[in-house]
Amino acid sequence: MKYFVNENCIGCGLCVVTCPEVFELTDDSVAHARDVETGDPQAAEAMENCPVEAIEER
Ligand code: SF4
Asked: Ligand 1: residues within 6 Å at CB?
């Protein structure tokens, strides 16, 4: 599974704290999902907990 952060991101940083293996904050202070296949349950948790539903899976 791969993840994607859409334009709804408000840069709260929660996903980066939850799963730093996949999510990182960019210089523009929004999250970016690394282009990696992962089955990490923490990545799924990050998606579920995003306050603005900015994380999608592909
Ligand atoms: Fe953006 Fe959602 Fe991650 Fe917060 S949890 S940084 S709003 S993608």
From this structure: 5, 9-15, 31, 50-52, 54-55
pTM of the entire structure? 0.95
Q: How far apart are CA 40 and CA 30, in angstroms?
A: 21
pLDDT of residue 43: 98
Centre of ligand 1 to C-alpha 2, Å, is: 16
Q: Which residues contact 57 (CB under 8 A, 6 or more apart)?
A: 1, 2, 3, 4, 44, 47
At residue 48, what are phi and psi to the nearest 5 degrees? -65, -35
Q: 3-class secondary structure for 39-58?
A: CCHHHHHHHHHCCCCCEEEC
